[in-house]
Amino acid sequence: MKNRFKIPFFVLILAAFYSCKKDETSTNTNPTRVNSMTDFNASHKKPTQHFTMNANTAGSIITTGGIEFYFPPNSLINSSGVAVTGNVDVQIDEVITKADMFFNEISTHSDGRPLKSGGAFKIKVTQGSETLSMASGQQYHAWLTSNYFEPLMQTYYGIPTTDQYGIINWTTTPPGFTQDVFTNN
Description:
The structure is a single chain. The protein has about 180 residues and is an alpha+beta fold. It is built from three helices and 13 strands; from the N terminus they run H-H-E-E-E-E-E-H-E-E-E-E-E-E-E-E. Strand 8 and strand 9 form a beta hairpin. The longest helix is centred in the N-terminal third of the chain and has 18 residues, at about 1-20. The termini are far apart. Mean pLDDT is about 80; it is low at about 180-185.
């Protein structure tokens, strides 16, 4: 009786063994190659967000990450100091998560000291090919949406640098500006 079960079991094992065969076809995938961390980071960072705003009426803009900006009406000027009218392009790069910081190659240092970040953004307003600025006495407001907050946190401004801590040094007052360039309410 033992032999009766051995032979079919042995045949079953042989059939299973020989029916399994390596697939000879291969899929040729060509992964995207990058030559540097800068290229890698650029290919993975969030795209710049573009918003169209009427300079006469201005108003609020909310990014995909939830940062809200408010521009007062008639607050933008061109390089000649003339008030701008009509539509303008608002370009915003938001940096909210640690991954955003990594892919944007942003360090969190201020004069060599580490900082804790509640988020950051880079904003540029243009009309045509001209970069615009805020008129004297005007300011826009920005509300960050970070889950991280400490009561003693301050607003810092990124100044491009090539020091040992990265490409940005964060300072509370950039050269040529007053302490209250931005308002966080």
